[in-house]
Amino acid sequence: MSKDDVLIFERGSFKVGVTTKIQPEGKVMLRNMTVGSHGAQYHHKNTDERLDQTQDKYFLYMKRSGQLKATVTNALRRIETDFGKVNAYYVRYFLFSNELQASSEKRIKHGNEGVLKRFFKKYMSESPAANGVGYGEDLNLPSFYYAYFDAENYRSTELSEILGLKPVGQFDTFAFTRLHPQKNPNVERLARVHHESMRVKLAEFYAGYSIYIEQFLFLNDNYFVWRENGEVVAGVQVNKCEWELKKMSGLTGLFMMHILPYIPGLKKYINPKKFEFITYDYIYVKPGYESKLEPLFMSMLNKFNVTFSLQWQDVKSPLHSVISNMDKGMLSTFSKVPTGRIMMTLADISDEQVQALMHKPVFTCAMDMS
């Protein structure tokens, strides 16, 4: 195999490898996967685009008799912390065949780790670059893997156990909606000549956060700002998304999936088969100007011709209370999601280092969620 594709385990017809280039069948598998659990299930339509936009990717793959049975996508994030540089690996996608997952969950419930869990425990206890592929990261640095689990997925599956992830924090999902969003003349697309000054402003704004990354900042030139007397007092990165809503539970699911799409005058706002929305990322607000975020968000809905947006905030984030108290629109009341879990591996990082990371809010990147 080439240096960007290394076989790391083999037993009979079962083979495991790690590569920096996704295999064609892996891309098809990810493209067709349904995300979620028994409560809510949805199909990401932007998977190919997100793979292209995500830098420094590792793909762990498992095959049996030549057939792909599992794939896990990790993205390297070189981050600065209070205790120095760290190699963080975001678990972007994880997908197991029903056969493989059912077998592993059965073993876990009976107190047996099984080959799959033992393998992941070892694999995710160190950098994937330790296997001989990589992006030149320093293997002497501490490292950890992290992921975001929605509450229902966290409770109803054993994937976190299989991956060796432990809960270390919480985040909330916020929908911001308007049926007839209005644009505001104070809002403008940030000119590229101002990108560097805004990057510095955002780095200062998020200095008190953990796992802050910049790789999706200014993506597609979609950073917009609110100016007062020429000064930027609020800003947001906007990303377009499309999902297919497969299933939603409870009264919310009944309304969103089976009632709203058929109400005259309202059905154009939600199409479960082609659910188009935007996400808000890299939010900035100057203290005292928090009231400008609501009309800024509304202007973005107007700009991108949608009625629905999503964002994610660590419960410890100062932005969490700002968004919580905002008028998020009528449709937001039908799209509430239980508090999710921030998950980490702890094998290659000390308890003190975990505490140093988690006493701060985590920068919950919307691009990683969508």
Beta-strand content estimate: 25-35%
**Which structural class matches the secondary elements?**
alpha+beta
CATH class of the domain at 174-340: Alpha Beta
- Overall, the morphology is globular
Give the strand tally. 15
CATH architecture of the domain at 174-340: 3-Layer(aba) Sandwich
The main sheet comes to: 15 strands, mixed
N-to-C CA distance: 33 Å
Evaluate the radius of gyration. Answer: 21 Å
* Helix percent band: 25-40%
What value does the average pLDDT take?
A: 87
Tell me the name of the CATH homologous superfamily of the domain at 174-340.
Answer: Gcn5-related N-acetyltransferase (GNAT)
Q: Name the poorly predicted regions.
A: none
According to CATH, the fold-level topology of the domain at 174-340 is Aminopeptidase
Order of helices and strands: EEHEEHEEEHHEHHEEHEEHEHEHEHH
User: What's the helix count?
Assistant: 12
What's a quick, concise take on this entry?
The protein has helices at 24-32, 47-53, 98-109, 114-123, 151-156, 159-163, 195-205, 250-259, 293-303, 318-324, 351-358, 366-369; strands at residues 5-11, 14-19, 35-36, 40-44, 57-64, 67-81, 84-96, 143-149, 166-177, 187-189, 223-228, 231-248, 275-285, 308-314, 340-344.
